[in-house]
Amino acid sequence: MEKKRIVKVWVDTEGVYATTEDNVTAGYKFSQWKRLANASQKDREHFYLTYGGIHWPTLDEDLSFEGMFESKGYCKRTPTEDSVYWLAS
After folding, report:
1. Cα(11)–Cα(81) distance, integer angstroms
2. Are 50 and 38 in contact (CB under 8 A)?
3. DSSP secondary-structure letter at 14?
4. Which of 1, 44, 63, 86 is exposed most, by the fewest CB atoms within 10 A?
């Protein structure tokens, strides 16, 4: 399976989104996760990126990039969950 590299991640008041280097964008609504749905916008904006996903340290919440893109039909799950990844440039 072709791997896709994340180049941009952002949040707004409704969800979190990621775009790959070939300009494919996927996202999740915060309402899908109790911790994110009930969090302040400040806590939602306080995240860091890992190779495979997004981590909110103050909320103890993690979301995978592969899951985000798989839920939109852009890829299939893999055993290692690394078909969509972030790597600092």
Report:
1. 22
2. no
3. S
4. 1
Strands 48-49 and 25-29, by their bridges, are unpaired
The C-alpha atoms of residue 19 and residue 6 are separated, in whole angstroms, by 6
Q: How many Å is the Cα radius of gyration of the chain?
A: 12
Q: How far is it, in rounded angstroms, from Cα 35 to Cα 44?
A: 10
pLDDT tens digits, one per residue of 17-49: 999 999 999 999 999 999 999 999 999 999 999
pTM of the model: 0.90
87 Cβ partners below 8 Å, 6+ apart? 5, 51
C-alpha 33/C-alpha 37 separation (Å) is 6
What one-letter code names the amino acid at 86? W
